[in-house]
Design brief:
0% strand, single chain, globular, mainly alpha
Length: 330
């Protein structure tokens, strides 16, 4: 009976309706006009869209069942292994870095805008490092392994990625003066929209969103980010505001002439949980073991994926520059 109850709680938790049910049971419906009440109504949107997206895929286009299956296994695994680690790291970083804040903010609309711009910078830093440092790529690659884009990809993360990401993002935000209450509001908005941008073609075929594509990051931009095409690799690191991609030269729009190919460049079995989850770690371990000298072993850990001690680099930057140069010549 306890197992069934725990299973039920997991289902309710996944659907994001736990808080809403608790508020309904309290009988005070005016609470839904508060921040907590509004948040409780927003939480279930992404799980609902995920289920709807899967059903639509079954009706109109057979989805890659292996993508849903592997991502579901990742979600279950992460629930058991790393449930509270990320929350603990956020709390720890707030306590450590609050005294080093360079300015004081308050919970107002203009400081909320400031907080979101700072959060996007922090997110850019974490996300950029996740692609440019091979050790961090081992944690992030699980998210890029699916060869189809859908909302289940939101849950495809190595369990240590959230603690590493939140350590970087929280530290930067707190040092730049973002108060914890502002930070948690931004994290809620960002988490909800960050899940939505993974919506697949079965639900929204053209996800450029018209003029919005120029002023914010749309699902189209994030589909580009998940592509393994040379033109698209290592671009669009932001989450909602693409300001920092434009500042640092990593902005890339989806081209109608370049069809997106999802996944990573390493040969892998995207339907195999172990290869998706641990494959890049195994590949890194093999490169480090074979590398001559301690310096090269260390460089394999900190240099971008595709770096080689022989000089025959196959990094995303090399692939993209080669593609752009061939396009200019043709």
């Amino acid at each position: 009976m306890e197992i069934l109850l725990e299973l039920w709680n997991e289902v309710i938790g996944f659907l994001g309706i736990t808080q809403a049910l608790e508020l309904l049971q309290a009988g005070d419906y005016t609470v839904f006009t508060t921040y907590d009440g509004v948040a409780s109504l927003i939480y279930p949107i992404i799980p609902f869209l995920l289920i709807l997206e899967f059903i639509v895929g079954l009706v109109y286009k057979k989805p890659q069942i292996k993508v849903y299956r592997v991502n579901f296994l990742i979600y279950i695994f992460n629930r058991f292994v790393g449930r509270f680690i990320a929350i603990a790291m956020v709390t720890f970083c707030i306590g450590v870095f609050s005294k080093y804040a360079i300015l004081q903010t308050s919970y107002t609309w203009y400081w909320l805008i400031y907080a979101y711009i700072v959060w996007e910078l922090a997110h850019f830093v974490y996300h950029y490092l996740g692609h440019k440092v091979r050790l961090f790529w081992c944690l992030h690659s699980t998210h890029h392994a699916p060869e189809e884009m859908n909302l289940s990809v939101t849950h495809a993360h190595f369990f240590l990625e959230a603690p590493y990401a939140d350590t970087i993002r929280t530290s930067i935000c707190i040092v730049l003066g973002v108060k914890p209450e502002l930070l948690f509001t931004v994290m809620f908005i960002d988490g909800t929209y960050g899940a939505f941008i993974h919506i697949g073609e079965n639900m929204i075929r053209d996800a450029r969103f018209g003029f919005l594509n120029k002023i914010m990051l749309t699902p189209s931009h994030h589909r580009v980010h998940h592509a393994r095409n040379p033109l698209y690799m290592d671009t669009n690191f932001c989450n909602l505001l693409n300001i920092w991609d434009r500042v640092f030269g990593t902005y890339q729009e989806e081209q109608k002439t370049v069809q997106i190919e999802y996944g990573i460049t390493r040969q892998m079995d995207s339907g195999n949980f172990w290869d998706v989850y641990f494959g890049e770690i195994v590949a890194l371990a093999k490169d480090v073991f074979k590398a001559p000298g301690i310096v090269n072993k260390f460089l394999y850990i900190v240099m971008p994926p595709g770096w080689s001690h022989t000089g025959e680099h196959k990094t995303a930057k090399v692939a993209r520059n080669h593609y752009l140069s061939t396009q200019q010549e043709s």
